[in-house]
Amino acid sequence: MRRIFFPGLLLILMLSGCSKKKYFFEKELAFPKIITNDQKIKLAAYLVPTSRQYEWQKTEMNAFIHFGMNTFTNREWGNGFEDPALFNPTAFDAEQWVKTLKNAGFGILILTAKHHDGFCLWPTETTTHSVASSPWRNGEGDVVREVKDACDKYKMKFGIYLSPWDRNAKSYGDSPQYNALFIKQLTELLSNYGEIDEVWLDGAKGEEPLERVQEYDWEAFYKVIDQLQPRAVKAVMGNDVRWVGNEKGFARETEWSVTPLQPNIDVATIKENERLGISPAAEDLGSRELIVRAKKLYWYPAEVNVSLRPGWFYHPEEDQQIKTLNRLVDIYYKSVGRNAVLLLNVSPDTRGLLPETDVKRLEQFGNYIASTFDENKLVDGKVAWTTKQGGFREYDLLENDTINTIMLQEDIKQGQRVESFRVDAQMGNGWKKLGEGTTIGYKRLLKFNDVATSKIRITILETRDEANILNVGAFYAPPTEEYSANK
Ligand code: FUL
Question: Strand 385-387 to strand 467-475: parallel, antiparallel, or no bridges (unpaired)?
């Protein structure tokens, strides 16, 4: 069993070598006042995810759904003055969304229950600006309910996006009053729809001159979520899951889940982020140089949100601009393959259906990922091993075979530690270097040119403490053009 301990005491135990037991810090760690730089790095190696963060990380690929008033006004950001009568999907079918996404391999479906325009997709008691005032299902409909029911039916996890910025709510700008309304909305969504796995708290806020200014009570929002859905992760402005810092689909080449960064939810946090010069988009969120300047560290893993189309909501003029299979696969390698979770957005149209072209692309993508990574070509890839810096392990392939991708996983339940690794393949009597990488974390994919071999070697070049390698795989990813033509 893992034990959670206090930094000072842990430090004494670890450095004195008087305990063979393993001690870890869950989610956060404050450095003791007197500590050397080396000791800080050592402690950083013992920070681990909470069980909900770990469950979330294992989903690997999740889906975002942007659907709401903007779908009908053909906008990305509504102003809040839209007539609820405009919301009227003609063939709404949540099962079509869920079946498509589930079959393509997505784990959690996150629905925009309310976007910045304030229109609520469920019949809330907090406002009349909702589906209850629309002609859809004669004002008796509930999008959240239908999507959640479909998720339950197809065994998909469910999450909600609830925009704090609300351009319709009259109380917005009267901070305590609006915060109370937002809490009521959260409470409705988190009490009436069963299990919720993720709550996506958007940081976007209007900056136009006449925009009302609202101070959000993040602490209170967190409390409601933690109380009502203890298994849900709080994302972006939440402190369980971090925004990766761009909307292009790429995590960093070096992506640490251990970082001093926290969302800017109060003055102290804003000041500390400023002192360290970090934000979600900063290039470096976890180097040794940064850690030695930090006072506290957090397990705060990255989520990569990106849309299948240029916009988040459906726009008919973007029908020809769906991302290609090649682009999606590249995104997969640079998100899931770089220690992050992919959150791919899809956009139902005014019928309330995912367009056929989008469904086809998702099918292609899902099939490509499943068929490429289904069969590990290594013997004993799943045998875990532990090593100090410089250690290596060799793996036989099931047969001499062509590969172009290596997958590595650290046992993050024992922390994220590896700083660099190298992969070689046996060629004749010698070894040929296939490539090098930096962080591993939950998962790292390393791509290289096709090579035929019967043995590979993984070397851990640098690590913050003993590295715990959980899983190694070798795969052959076919060219995407060939694949789309054949399937
Ligand atoms: C942003 C929003 O402003 C966009 O409209 C979209 O919802 C995106 C996922 O987050 O902050």
Answer: antiparallel
CB atoms within 10 A of CB 112: 26
Nearest to 289 by CA among 244, 263, 254: 254
Backbone angles phi, psi at 332, to 5 degrees: -60, -50
Q: Residue 233 maps to which CATH number?
A: 3.20.20.80
Ligand 1 pocket, residue 421 CB under 6 Å = no
Alpha carbons 138 and 142: distance in angstroms, whole number = 11
The residue nearest atom 10 of ligand 1, judged by CA position, is: 202
Instruction: Lay out the sheet containing 430-437: strands in order across.
Output: 385-387, 467-475, 392-410, 444-463, 418-427, 430-437
The pLDDT tens digits of the residues spanning 435-468 come to 999 999 999 999 999 999 999 999 999 999 999 9
Q: Is 163 exposed, middle or buried (0-12, 13-18, 19+ CB in 10 A)?
A: buried
* Residue 160 domain-assigned (yes or no): yes
Q: Is 202 in the pocket of ligand 1 (CB under 6 A)?
A: yes
> How many residues in total does the chain contain?
487
CB neighbours of 329 closer than 8 A, spacing ≥ 6? 365, 368, 369, 477, 480
* Nearest atom (ligand 1) to Cα of 112: 7
Structure token digits, residue 136: 């859809």
Nearest to 333 by CA among 482, 475, 483, 156: 475
Q: Does some domain include residue 276?
A: no
Residue 200 CA: nearest ligand 1 atom is: 9
Please report, rounded to a whole number, the percentage of residues in the chain having pLDDT higher than 70. 95
Residue 445 is part of which domain span?
Answer: 385-486
Predicted confidence (pLDDT) per residue in 134-171, tens digit: 999 999 999 999 999 999 999 999 999 999 999 999 99
Q: How would you classify residue 390: left for phi > 0, otherwise alpha for psi between -120 and 50, otherwise beta?
A: left
Taking a C-beta distance cutoff of 8 angstroms, is the pair 421, 430 a contact? no
**Domain co-membership, 311 together with 445:** no
Element (H, E) at 288: helix 288-293
Q: Locate the ligand 1 atom nearest the alpha carbon of residue 307 and give its number.
A: 9
Task: Decide whether any atom of ligand 1 lies within 6 Å of the 70 Cβ.
Answer: no
Asked whether residue 179 is assigned to any structural domain, the reply reads yes
- Asked if residue 399 and residue 363 are part of one domain, the reply reads no
Q: What is the pLDDT of residues 236-287, one digit of tens each?
A: 999 999 999 999 999 999 999 999 999 999 999 999 999 999 999 999 999 9
Angle separating helix axes 37-44 and 7-16, nearest 10 degrees: 100
| Shared domain check, 482 and 359 | no
Q: What are the two backbone dihedrals, phi and then psi, of residue 114, each rounded to the nearest 5 degrees?
A: -150, 125
Reported as a single tens digit per residue, the pLDDT across 8-33 is 666 666 655 555 567 999 999 999 99
Do residues 101 and 166 share a domain? yes
Burial class (CB in 10 A: 0-12, 13-18, 19+), 452: exposed
Count CB-CB contacts under 10 A for residue 317: 9
